[in-house]
Structure formats: structure tokens, C-alpha cells
Amino acid sequence: MLSVVQLFCRRTNLDVPATAYGSTDDQVRQIVGLLEEEGIDLASRGDWQELTYEATHTSLATEDQGAIATIASNGFDHFKVDSFWDRTLRLPVFVLDGQEWQAVKAVSLSGPRYQARIRGGRLIANPVPTAGHTWAFEYISKNWILGADGTTYKQFFTLDTDTLLLPESLLLMGLRWRWKKEKGLEYAEDFATYEGQVKKAIGHNGLKKAFSMAGGSRGPSPGIVVPQGDWMQ
């Protein structure tokens, strides 16, 4: 984190600080706060591969499967689309919104595929699952900072040695327009350039499938899978 603050100060012709977090200099404290604000906002704008994690859960024989913050323990923000599967049944678990959930409950639909949603910070499922199934899904974390210990993920700075998981070039661009805005300077051009680069970065982030204008498969579907090369001669 310190290196990003120092680089920004150098490029902005400000005094370069020897330390950032915990600094008593109002200018430095403002820059650190704006960088933190930028990181939190940028993390929420896309399904960054740098912030994507896998969670596994052993199903319970009850509607309430537990706190999502415990199941997806690295700062859960939201599910990755179409990634929730019951590995025991080899079937997808469908993620519902509030309207869909209430419709399912109203008509008492059940099995064989499970549906799930998050309500009040809890993962709930319908119909009541069989205990012991392995459920797995990918999710996006809100923790865009990695501590110096290499194991502590967080949203807010606590050390100069904190590592930023999102592209530093974007964080610097975001910091620049935010700083200019706070100072009452013209920032429209910087903001427009930043927005363009963010959209480009999100579009290129991670591996992407080829896009078909005619539509296509949303992903693997339930069925018998025959690996390539396993056909009988």
C-alpha cells in the first residue's frame, strides 16, 4: 500500500511520505482514505478473478444451512453466476431471488433439484436437503487487501505493507480523480479515462468464453458425461 501512495505523491508533485498508515500528516491520511474508498468501490464493480474463491459446504437436513459468512468465509459479497452445484447428486443448485423463492414456497414445489437463496445473512434451501451432500460454489469476496502475513484478507488497511489484490494502475487512476474532486479541481477527463479503463479491465479479467449472438449453453448440464477418448473401438 505504501508504494502506491508514494507513487501517487511523486506523480502529483507532493511530498513523498516515508509512511502512510498511521501518518499524522493530513494530506497523507486523506490519500490513504481515498485509496481505501477507491479499492472498496472497484472491488464491487466486477467479478474479479483476483477476488474469486470457492466454498464447499456439507448440507444439513434443515432449511437453514447456516451463516453465509461462515460458509464462504473470505468476505463473501455475492455468488458467481451458475457456479452452485450439488457434487453428490451432480446437479446444479439454483439460486433464487425473493420473488422466485416465495413462488416456490407458495406452490410447495419440491425436488429433485435444490434451490437456495440468502436471507438475513443465512443460506436457506428448498426442499430441505438430505444431510451430508457436498455443495460447492464460487463467490466474489469484498476483501481486496492481503495482509503482510499472506493469509489475512481484509477490506481496510492496517499496515503499510498491505498488498493490493486489484490492478494498481486502476487504483492509481481512481485515486487521482477522487483526490482532484476532493481538492475542488477539474477531474472530468481523469474520471472518463478511468471509467473506460475499468470497463476494459473487467471485460478482459480472467478467462472468457467465446460469445455467440445466437445464444448458447450457460454451462455444463446434468447428464451422462463421456470423456473424450473413452469411446469403445
Shape: elongated
Beta-strand percent range: 15-25%
Structural class: alpha+beta
Series of H and E elements: HHEEHEEEEHEEEEEEHH
Assembly annotation: single chain
The average pLDDT is: 91
Straight-line distance between termini = 59 Å
The largest β sheet comes out as:
5 strands, antiparallel
Q: Give the helix tally.
A: 6
Number of domains: 2
Estimated radius of gyration: 22 Å
Helix percent reads: 25-40%
By DSSP, the count of extended strands is 12
List low-pLDDT spans.
Answer: none
Describe this structure in words.
The chain is α+β, with helices and mostly antiparallel strands. It has two domains: about 1-45 and about 150-205, no CATH class; about 50-140, no CATH class. About 30% of the residues lie in helices and about 20% in strands. The chain has six helices and twelve strands. The protein has helices spanning about 1-10, 25-45, 70, 100-105, 170-180, 190-205, and strands at about 50-60, 65, 75-80, 85, 90, 95, 115-120, 120-125, 135-140, 145, 155, 165. Strands 1, 3, 4, 5 and 9 form a five-stranded antiparallel sheet that branches. Strands 2-8-7-6 form a four-stranded mixed sheet. Strand 7 (about 115-120) and strand 8 form a beta hairpin. Helix 2 (about 25-45) packs across helix 5 and helix 5 (about 170-180) packs antiparallel against helix 6 (about 190-205).
